[in-house]
Design goal:
single chain, 408 residues, alpha/beta, Aminopeptidase, Rossmann fold, seven-stranded mixed sheet, 16 strands, 25% strand
């Protein structure tokens, strides 16, 4: 298989290949492109329309008879290699999960360089209804604004909900070995519905929360519901568990599991943990498992946790913290943020944020090292307990969560 620059004489064959796969052909004359050729037959194609600061990848196609040979990957590798110092953008309805595994995140036009609007796919109606994905240069002038970060996090964890967790592609294995290593036991793995455990935690806050029959539990960043389902069994039918998550795919998975397995005392609400869709003073216990580090405003998360807890209510979280500052380049890396690293606080700053929200008795009740892979960063997994004092200053209601749940 030979990959080369496309030539004017390739146009008819390329358009025929794109049309066969219901892909648009408009604007190819404004693109640089490559074709994959074998025995004088064009079997694959990719094109890039570029501006000084953005490259729009489009028209990636592989003929049916050439699939399964890694051709799409080779074509994308070439396009990304040529334009990798710019922000890479594409619109697609069909290969979103695949490009997310290549480091792209859900984005919006407003988060992209303004010049993207001059390209074929963004100046008119071409593919206007398709989701937008972007990959930002690791050393470029990437500003990690709050909405961009949240979009990256939703993209990463939405893909995990659909495709499975890091230790179980496809979502069916239960991630048992990894969970046993961070504090769960075999009884926990049996008690939760198959598919709820995606292997995304860094501890077992449920075991440390000392849940009691009849209590109301709130799980911040509940994902597919693993900790919520374990909590539901501990608080019993007189108790209640509320899971809050901002990722639609995670919520859909959790709600489906709850319905299919008869968890009548569990509900999952869509919302941001920085503006909880929960009424003030209604929760006995808050748990969270490796999620608060993903929030853009941790102080606000802890203030919201304080607000919704009853006086005397308990906070029990497992999370990742830094033992020394990150390199500046990593702080600007959206992938590192979505992977729970770039947004993590220094350990002392994390604990100070809990205390500043009004909690008392803030204590690290467990700590272990965390394997950050090939990244030379010092990260620790901590388990933190805190209490909302019985006599404490009131916490104001939020301006409105927008969830329509009546939480005001």
């Amino acid at each position: 298989m030979h990959i080369r620059d496309h030539r004017p004489e390739d146009r008819q064959a390329v358009e025929r290949l794109l049309t066969t796969e219901n892909l648009p052909t408009e604007g190819l004359d404004r693109c640089m492109g490559w074709v994959a050729e074998e025995a004088d037959e064009i079997l694959g194609h990719v094109a890039v329309e570029s501006t000084p600061d953005v490259a729009v990848i489009r028209s990636l196609v592989v003929a049916p008879q050439a699939r399964g040979r890694g051709l799409a990957r080779r074509l994308m590798d070439l396009a990304e290699g040529v334009y990798g110092k710019r922000t890479l953008v594409l619109r697609t309805e069909s290969i979103g999960p695949w490009v997310e595994r290549r480091g792209y995140v859900h984005s919006t036009v407003g988060q992209l360089p303004a010049s993207v609007r001059t390209t074929t796919q963004f100046e008119g109606d071409l593919c206007s209804s398709c989701p937008v994905y972007a990959r930002f240069p690791a050393t470029g002038p990437v500003l990690l604004d709050a909405e961009g970060i949240k979009s990256a996090v939703r993209g990463r964890y939405g893909a995990i909900a659909v495709n499975g967790g890091p230790c179980c592609p496809g979502g069916g294995c239960g991630c048992g070995d990894a969970s046993l290593e961070i504090g769960y036991d075999l009884a926990d793995l049996v008690a939760a519905p198959d598919g709820a455990n995606l292997g995304l935690g860094c501890g077992n806050p449920v075991a440390l929360a000392s849940l009691k029959e009849g209590e109301t539990v709130l799980d911040l960043g509940s994902g597919a519901g693993f900790d919520a389902f374990l909590s539901a069994r501990r608080v019993g039918p007189r108790g209640r568990v509320i899971g809050v998550d901002m990722t639609p795919e995670m919520l859909a998975k959790a709600r489906d599991l709850a319905a299919r397995h008869g968890f009548a005392n569990v509900e999952f609400r869509q919302g941001d943990i920085e503006a909880l869709p929960v009424a003030s003073g209604t929760v006995d216990v808050i748990i969270s498992n490796c999620v608060i580090n993903l929030a853009t405003d941790k102080a606000k998360v802890f203030r919201e946790a304080f607000r919704v807890l009853k006086p005397g209510g308990r906070l029990m979280v497992s999370d990742l913290v830094l033992l020394k500052p990150l390199p500046e380049a990593m702080k600007r890396d959206l992938d590192a943020y979505a992977a729970c690293l770039a947004g993590a606080l220094l350990k002392d700053d994390y604990l100070d944020a809990i205390r500043a929200a009004g909690f008392s008795g803030t204590e690290v009740v467990g700590e272990s090292g965390y394997d950050a892979g090939d990244l030379a960063v010092a990260v620790s997994s901590i388990k933190v307990a805190a209490i909302r004092p019985i006599e404490s200053r009131p916490s104001p209601e939020p301006s409105g969560c927008g969830c329509g749940c009546g939480c005001k």
